[in-house]
Design a protein that fits this description.
Layout lengths: L1 E4 L2 E5 L7 E5 L6 H9 L3 E5 L5 E5 L7 H9 L2 H27 L8 H13 L6 H19 L20 H23 L18 H8 L2 H12 L22
């Protein structure tokens, strides 16, 4: 396989050891090479320059049937174990985020919330059913959101989480950030042949990429929630566009 730039060959890569190729941006690939890759059973995934999945070209069927079978047929204990790991990581990230922002808000008493999140993170290891794990996850989110209301700059209110549509700037920022995360992370598992609609923690739902939503969970606090708290903080929140108050977002998580 020859790589060209400006009509000149810049590199040559043997295809014998390739399993798949990821092409970022508008980089053309010749029909001859496509036929060769297909004959060798090599998948080609096309992503945008920012890494968003566009489409994948595969031989008659993706050759790694064992990967898809393993994802679909994993036993109950494996799925519970992965769900515990995801949820515990999410709870600990929520706890750490509150600790971090509490240092900059001397007047905010968050001891009750941080203690509750720490206990929840420890208890999730003992949960025996998906419903119990999701219940602990939901308790952690409500606890964290209750604390957020005391961390926001004056003039911003946040009493509950609502998605469709977000009714206020805080919900709008959280939904927008989560949408960006979902779009970014959806590309990799799909490019590698996983079924993004089958997750470990979340149940199956029409149109929802449950696997991607699972992967996003532990990143919500350190990425989207942290950004929201940073933007809507004393000295910064006043500069946010007024349009956030009426914007609509979308979140599949």
């Amino acid at each position: 396989m020859a790589l060209k730039k400006g009509g000149k060959i810049t590199d040559e890569i043997p295809t014998m050891d390739l399993k798949r190729i990821l092409i970022f941006g508008n980089n053309p690939i010749s029909t001859e090479l496509m036929r060769h890759l297909a004959s060798k059973g090599i998948e080609v995934a096309f992503l945008s320059s920012r890494g968003r999945f566009r489409y994948r070209i595969v031989p008659e069927l993706p050759k790694n049937i064992y990967l898809r079978m393993a994802q679909h047929d994993r036993n109950r204990e494996f799925r519970l174990r992965r769900s515990r790991i995801i949820t515990e990581a999410k709870l600990r990230n929520q706890h750490n985020l509150l600790i971090r922002f509490r240092k900059n808000r001397p007047g905010a008493d968050l001891n009750e919330e941080t203690d509750a999140l720490e206990k929840s993170a420890q208890s999730v290891r003992e949960k025996q059913t998906p419903d119990e794990i999701m219940g602990t996850d939901g308790f952690g989110s409500k606890t964290c959101f209750r604390a957020y209301a005391r961390l926001l700059t004056k003039g911003f209110e946040f009493s509950w989480r609502k998605y469709h549509p977000p009714p206020d700037p805080v919900n709008a920022l959280l939904s927008f950030g989560c949408m960006l995360l979902l779009n970014e992370l959806n590309s990799l598992p799909e490019a590698f042949g996983f079924d993004v609609f089958l997750g470990f923690l979340r149940s199956v739902r029409y149109w929802r990429a449950s696997l991607t939503s699972d992967l996003v969970e532990e990143l919500r606090s350190p990425v989207t929630d942290r950004l929201m708290l940073y933007l809507i903080s004393p000295g910064r929140g006043e500069a946010l566009p007024v349009c956030l108050g009426g914007g609509q977002g979308h979140e599949d998580g």
